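Q: I have 219 residues here and want to know how they pack in 3D. Can you give me a structure?
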Amino acid sequence: MSTVEHNSAEQRFLLRGISWQTYQELRNSPENEHVRMTYQEGELAMMSPSKTHEQYASLTDRLLQVWTLEHDIDIQSCRTVTFKREDLQHGLEPDNCYYVANESFVRNHPELDLTADPPPDLAVEIDLGGGGRNKLAMYAAFRVPEVWWFDGRRLQVFVLENKSETGGRAAEWQYEEREAGVSFPALPPAEIERVLAKLGTASETTLVKSFRDWMRTRT
């Protein structure tokens, strides 16, 4: 069964009863190169990002590149690399993702293998249409330490916490919203949000320069 979800910003297709093998075949098909896919236990959501979606993702990445360059922070950018594990029956692509704490560990790894490698330290999600919050549970299953979630108005920072109680219970990983992240604790999310809110009012270069100028006044 398939359904189509429409909203003002994005269009999504949802397919049910899809095997892991079929998901792999669709994901690896060259004609689907620019399609974002989220696979969860037989359900496959496919989405073609809008121009605005990609602008937000690109601008966020440029801001982080400036921040890490100015503060001499080593990172590895993996952009929209596919997270996938057959044992979890999960597969997804973030809009951006980064290794920070584990950058040196994966620096010479040409491919991402989440059965052996640690997950990226930070994933960024642009969710203009809503309805994508089930991805948080998937990121938790992959043990991604931090997720930034932007809905076109507000940037939320979620940090992974182990909510299990003592006494031998299995780990129960959930995200808690925080005022600051763990990957870049000195970077206020509100400042990223402020710049993203100005998208379309000035060139991206002007917006990035304004962020850089703000940043330099703090040092």
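Q: Anything worth noting?
A: The chain has one domain: 51-217. Residues 63 and 208 are 6 Å apart (CA to CA).
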